[in-house]
């Protein structure tokens, strides 16, 4: 029977000591990692409790697992720990038309079940005390390091004052529109009666009446856009429809013009269209008008160029006397848009061009 030598025991002891040291280091690293994780969680909780919006979090099944104190304060009821997306109707919300928001319509459901990265919805929410307010819900998917979905979070924003202000603004605009239309009617009646008494030719009365109607139409278009902006394409297509849509082509990118520029462009198109019908390409069969626009440059340096090109009509002649129409499409338009107008009386047809800076508030 043989016995292990002391040297063998010493080797085993050394190995055990080395392993214990490794385990101790691993434990220390694990403890340090846990401590850092706890710190991160504490920091996240601090952020959630200080942000001025409600935050709700759900796991990958849609179960509500957390909501910050802002949720309780805003909604005036505890955070509902809905078990999954099929229980979201616990959160009572309504659409603008008064219909109830369904489970699948909530942004959290859209993100969890619909696999959308982001979803948004404005709702009329019923608080715990029975009152209602407008709230915006913004949902966002949460993924792990490998890109796997592990849950979702939603932000709840109180937009009640914003919505109420917009509603009040719309009511005031409608009232203003009603009063302006009445004023237009009164002005037209006074002008018509005055011109008749003065024996002004019928053609002149008709021209003035048409100009007033064109201005009223431009005003109505801006009212539909809450008196802020108007689509250039709408202005162009309205002109095309008035003078002959089958003979006028319009093309160009999406451009929103501020109210001042939109009114000026509308009146200019009216005068150009009237001249085309009376004297230009649309005064004869086969004549056409091409109305196009383009945007160049970036940001505050964007430039809008609008072109009106006639073809197939009689050879244009430069006017010997400039009337009101010429004033509208040239000097008045240049002043209103801070742009530059160029007119060419080519043999092939009359050409008109406006180049103007595009306000930074416009979108293309």
UniProtKB/TrEMBL annotation:
The lineage of its organism: Bacteria, Pseudomonadati, Pseudomonadota, Alphaproteobacteria, Sphingomonadales. This is histidine kinase. One of its GO terms (molecular function) is protein histidine kinase activity. Residues 175-254 form the Signal transduction histidine kinase HWE region domain. InterPro entries: HATPase_C_sf, PAS, PAS-like_dom_sf, Sig_transdc_His_kinase_HWE. Its EC number is 2.7.13.3. It comes from Allopontixanthobacter confluentis. It comes from the Bacteria. Keywords: ATP-binding, Kinase, Nucleotide-binding, Phosphoprotein, Transferase. SUPFAM superfamilies: PYP-like sensor domain (PAS domain). NCBIfam families: sensory_box. It catalyses: ATP + protein L-histidine = ADP + protein N-phospho-L-histidine. SMART domains: HWE_HK. The keyword Phosphoprotein applies.
């Amino acid at each position: 029977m043989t016995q292990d030598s002391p040297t063998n025991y010493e080797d085993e002891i050394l190995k055990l000591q080395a392993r214990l040291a490794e385990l101790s280091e691993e434990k220390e690293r694990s403890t340090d990692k846990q401590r850092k994780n706890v710190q991160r969680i504490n920091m996240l909780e601090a952020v959630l409790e200080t942000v001025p919006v409600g935050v709700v979090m759900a796991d990958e099944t849609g179960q509500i697992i957390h909501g910050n104190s802002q949720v309780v304060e805003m909604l005036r009821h505890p955070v509902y720990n809905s078990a999954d997306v099929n229980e979201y109707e616990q959160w009572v919300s309504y659409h603008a038309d008064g219909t109830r928001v369904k489970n699948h319509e909530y942004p959290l459901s859209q993100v969890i079940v619909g696999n959308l990265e982001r979803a948004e919805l404005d709702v009329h929410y019923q608080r715990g005390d029975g009152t209602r307010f407008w709230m915006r819900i913004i949902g966002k998917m949460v993924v792990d390091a490998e890109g796997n979905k592990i849950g979702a979070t939603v932000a709840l924003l109180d937009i009640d004052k914003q919505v109420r202000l917009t509603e009040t603004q719309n009511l005031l605009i409608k009232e203003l529109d009603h009063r302006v239309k009445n004023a237009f009617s009164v002005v037209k009646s006074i002008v018509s009666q005055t011109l008749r008494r003065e024996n002004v030719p019928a053609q002149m009365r008709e021209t003035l009446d048409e100009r007033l109607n064109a201005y009223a139409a431009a005003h109505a278009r801006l009212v539909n856009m809450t008196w802020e902006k108007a689509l250039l394409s709408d202005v162009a297509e309205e002109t095309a429809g008035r003078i002959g849509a089958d003979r006028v082509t319009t093309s160009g990118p999406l451009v929103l013009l501020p109210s001042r520029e939109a009114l000026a462009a509308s009146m200019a198109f009216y005068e150009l269209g009237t001249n085309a019908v009376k004297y230009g390409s649309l005064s004869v069969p086969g004549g056409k008008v091409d109305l196009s626009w383009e945007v160049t440059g970036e940001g505050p340096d964007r430039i809008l160029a609008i072109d009106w090109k006639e073809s197939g009509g009689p050879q244009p002649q430069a006017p010997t006397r400039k009337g009101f129409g010429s004033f509208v499409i040239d000097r008045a338009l240049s002043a209103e848009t801070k742009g530059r107008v160029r007119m060419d009386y080519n043999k092939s047809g009359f050409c008109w061009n406006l180049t103007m800076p595009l306000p930074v508030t416009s979108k293309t």
